[in-house]
Design goal:
Elements lengths: L1 E6 L7 H14 L4 E5 L4 H5 L2 E3 L2 H4 L23 H11 L4 E6 L1 H12 L4 E5 L15 H22 L2 E6 L6 H9 L4 E3 L7 H12 L6 E5 L12 E6 L5 E3 L2 H13 L3 E5 L11 H19 L5 E6 L2 E6 H5 L7 H8 L4
Parallel strand pairs: 1-2, 1-4, 4-5, 5-12, 6-8, 6-11, 7-8
Antiparallel strand pairs: 2-3, 9-10, 12-13
Helix pairs in contact: 1-10, 6-7, 8-9
Amino acid sequence: MRVGVLTGGGDCPGLNAVIRAVVRRGIKEYGYEFVGFRDGWRGPLENITVPLGVDQVRGILPRGGTILKSSRTNPFKIEGGVEKIKENLAANGIDALIAIGGEDTLGVATKLADLGVNVVGVPKTIDNDLSGTDFTFGFDTAVNIAMEAIDRLHTTAESHHRVMVVEVMGRHAGWIALHSGIAGGANVVLVPEKPFDIDAVCKYVEARFETNYSPIIVVSEGAVPVEGGDMTLQSGELDAFGHVRLGGIGDRLAKEIEDRTGKEARAVVLGHVQRGGTPTAFDRWLATRFGLQAIAAVRDGDFGTMMALRGTDIVRVPLIEGTGELKLVTPELYAEAEVFFG
């Protein structure tokens, strides 16, 4: 059997661990051959392939990013795109395809599975917003990077009596902000799921200064004020999956706080730093197990499925369970963070 492998969407710590596990088990236990498709869905769309064997996956476990590279290509937005993918898979003798990606990449995989392509999905996103799985790899790394930044910002904030606003990733879901904010001892955490009141935020800031400590505010890039507006909109341009580019909420919020309270405020945008570098031990463990079980699903002919973490078990769920709706921060979980506001 010949198996294709691709990684799509934003890069993520742990992608290489999945690739390594898929290839190592597939060759050692099942005697499969592998073909790597470069640049996400652009690979099978334009027939961009690379060799993928044991030699290619040696030493990649601790490496961030992806040796197969990535893109946000959407074949369903390209005329004849699906037919080209089917033709190129057949031309390469591909019997099954493993797609490693987030909502968009697995959304394409779901549609292709419905059209008869033998595909298995592996969930990937630092935002941890895919339903069907308790956690996605990359999330733990992003949270730890954000937490370390918050730890460091506490000292400079207190030295200068400043408000520090830390903008983290999270377009529609505030998981990174929630976890890193609680772990880092933030005084306010703002998430997309609950529009925030700027006046209330300013009251928390003033209450914090009364303790002789300086406030740290963690805000998701997609968080919005209750009055609405375009505080998070950085560009009106859409990508291939219809997403606008978000960003800027940290700077705008810092300016509002400074104007309303008279306290000096600074914004720190962590941005793609959260995606980069070596994955944590948890993400290496999770990504490896996802890869091992994904190639087992191929062996069993269990196509149209996605690997998912449920407790400590890796289970298979229909692809639509991972892409049908986003997993959002619940009011109950957010209320836990609110205990520490101010």
